[in-house]
Specification:
Order of helices and strands of chain A: EEEHEEEE
Strand order of the largest sheet of chain B: 2-6-4-5
Helix content of chain A: 10-25%
Number of helices of chain A: 1
Largest interface: A-B, 22 and 21 residues
Largest sheet of chain B: 4 strands, antiparallel
Order of helices and strands of chain B: HHHEEEEEEEHHHEHHEEHH
Largest sheet of chain A: 5 strands, antiparallel
Structural class of chain A: alpha+beta
Number of domains of chain B: 2
CATH class of the largest domain in chain B: Mainly Beta
Distance between the termini of chain A: 31 Å
CATH superfamily of the largest domain in chain B: Jelly Rolls
Strand content of chain A: 25-35%
Strand content of chain B: 15-25%
Oligomer: heterodimer
Number of helices of chain B: 10
Distance between the termini of chain B: 26 Å
Chain lengths: 81, 236
């Protein structure tokens, strides 16, 4: 288990994750990031007056090194049952 | 044991009772302090006391088999937990906990039931409150199914602030995530976004609402629907 940090940014603004989340490995971290994006993009991509479809999410390790990054628009919506 | 009239009357249900009705209950009302996370009821527990928040806030949660928590209702000074036990022995359907510490007026359920039996007017107060809770539960169900995390978070923050009676709410991001049914990271991002906009300030588990109007703008319509539904006649 290690700490992973999930920052979101649009090239201009960064909303940084100060607390991080303890996850098994980078695959679990990627899965976590996908779920977070799906939760932010539920039903619509504009929330809190921001167009999130233009945003990206970065996964960082405990040293602040970026391990992975992808666009919100790369994530398909969660299937609702 | 403090049973001064004024100490119990920050709770709107108690304040709404005519003085002679309140006097019937007053001898059996106690004012107690409860800390955050104190558990009132587990599902299946008999309701032995009725809690009227004067400050602080109670949460009613369904806990699923995999250990996740889902909000069904929160209760502050606008309501009570266990009121329907005034109609006879009742069992809790949810986990009831103290979400925000505060002072609570409590009365034993059997004492309250016996007062209600002798004063049918109180039965009417109870059923009106139950109707309100039912309407609210329906609205929450629709909200949880159809509205996104940001709208629900904003609604939630407003309701907590209303129920606690101020603009400061002590809630961790972990708790908010559980209530919203999202990852904690999602709450962090939403909170940061709101903070960035100057709507809230969120530090070390304490949320200060800076711009209520913006928060209302971001909340789903459920906030206004549920607010107008709080129809208990009130002094304040």
């Amino acid at each position: 288990m290690s700490m992973f940090y999930f920052d979101v940014h649009d090239g201009d603004k960064v909303l940084s994750d100060d607390d991080g989340t303890d996850l098994a490995d980078i695959d679990a971290a990627r899965e976590h990031a996908v779920v977070v994006v799906q939760e932010l993009m539920f039903r619509r991509s504009e929330m809190l007056d921001r167009d999130w479809s233009a945003w990206k999410i970065s996964i960082l390790d405990g040293e602040g090194v970026e391990l992975l990054r992808f666009n919100f628009s790369d994530v398909s919506p969660r299937k609702t049952s | 044991m403090d049973a001064r009239l004024e100490s119990h009357r920050d709770n709107r249900l108690l304040a709404a009772l005519a003085p002679e009705m309140f006097e019937l209950m007053r001898p059996d009302l106690r004012l107690i302090s409860l800390q955050q996370s104190h558990e009132l009821y587990e599902p299946g527990d008999e309701i032995d006391q009725i809690y009227f928040p004067q400050s602080g806030m109670l949460s009613l949660l369904i806990v699923t088999k995999d250990g996740r928590f889902f909000e069904t209702s929160t209760v502050g000074r606008d309501g009570a937990v266990g009121l329907h036990a005034g109609l006879g022995p009742r069992f809790s359907l949810t986990r009831a906990t103290v979400q925000i510490a505060g002072k609570f007026s409590v009365i034993r359920a059997d004492r309250f039931a016996s007062i209600v039996q002798d004063h049918p007017f109180l039965r009417d107060v109870i059923s009106r409150y139950i109707e309100l809770l039912w309407e609210e539960a329906q609205q929450i169900a629709a909200c949880n199914a159809g509205h996104d995390a940001s709208e629900r978070l904003c609604r939630w923050l407003l309701q907590c602030a209303d129920r606690v009676g101020g603009d400061t709410v002590d809630l961790t991001q972990e708790f908010l995530a559980q209530m919203l049914g999202t990852r904690r990271t999602t709450v962090t991002i939403l909170a940061k976004s709101l903070q960035d906009e100057g709507v809230i300030k969120y530090r070390r588990g304490r949320i200060h609402i800076l711009d209520r109007e913006s928060l209302k703008h971001h909340a789903c319509e459920c906030y206004h629907v549920m607010q107008s539904g709080r129809l208990m006649p009130s002094n304040s």
